[in-house]
Specification:
Blueprint lengths: L3 E8 L2 E8 L4 H8 L18 E4 L2 E4 L12 E3 L12 H8 L9 H14 L5 H8 L10 H20 L20
Parallel strand pairs: 1-5
Antiparallel strand pairs: 1-2, 3-4, 3-5
């Protein structure tokens, strides 16, 4: 019985044809087949969160997803955050708040925060604490991680409020409400 499957993965806005074993996790394929080593593997049981990536915008533990299950999904890894060698706003906030020490858990926290902030930019500090409690960090004590995410959320809200409404969209909208397609 052949255990290999030819799949196409959509990772960081690119398409990749890969021959993978049905038992290979998404984390394994990202790291070993695609050389995207920013996705770290810690516990391999879905507990630590170091392997968190976004799958169709949702944070998932890539050590718990088989690569064949990811076919047809949009995958984003920590490598997708920086553009042209420049850190994105979330990475800059992590740096400014010293929200990393050894750095092993940082990619998982960044992707968790990126996914959650895209859905809920109005998170309170207490809600951020709840979110980050799902990932493990043995160095920072979480306070600086919470502060970095809170700062980034505030900056994104301010930037969104500063943008003028497009023509025909003069009604006041909640920041997370979808724009009308006129």
């Amino acid at each position: 019985m052949n255990d290999d499957h030819l799949i196409t993965l959509a990772v960081n806005s690119g398409r990749h044809d890969l021959l993978v074993s049905s038992r290979h996790t998404l984390a394994d394929v990202l790291r070993h087949e695609m050389q995207l080593t920013g996705t770290h593997v810690g516990c391999e049981h879905g507990v630590c969160g170091a392997c968190t990536v976004l799958m169709d915008g949702e944070p998932v533990r890539s050590c718990l997803v088989f690569a064949v299950q990811a076919e047809g999904q949009e995958i984003r890894t920590v490598e997708s955050l920086a553009t042209g060698g420049e850190m994105n706003d979330l990475q800059e906030c992590f740096s400014a708040h010293h929200a990393l020490q050894c750095g092993f858990c940082t990619p998982g926290f960044l992707m968790l925060a990126e996914g959650v902030l895209a859905q809920r930019p109005d998170l309170t500090k207490e809600e951020i604490r709840e979110v980050v409690a799902s990932n493990l960090c043995r160095c920072t004590g979480y306070q600086t991680i919470v502060e970095a995410i809170e700062d980034c959320a505030a900056r994104r809200r301010a930037a969104q409020q500063a943008q003028p409404l497009p023509p025909g969209d003069a009604v006041e909208r909640h920041p997370s409400a979808p724009r009308s397609s006129q």
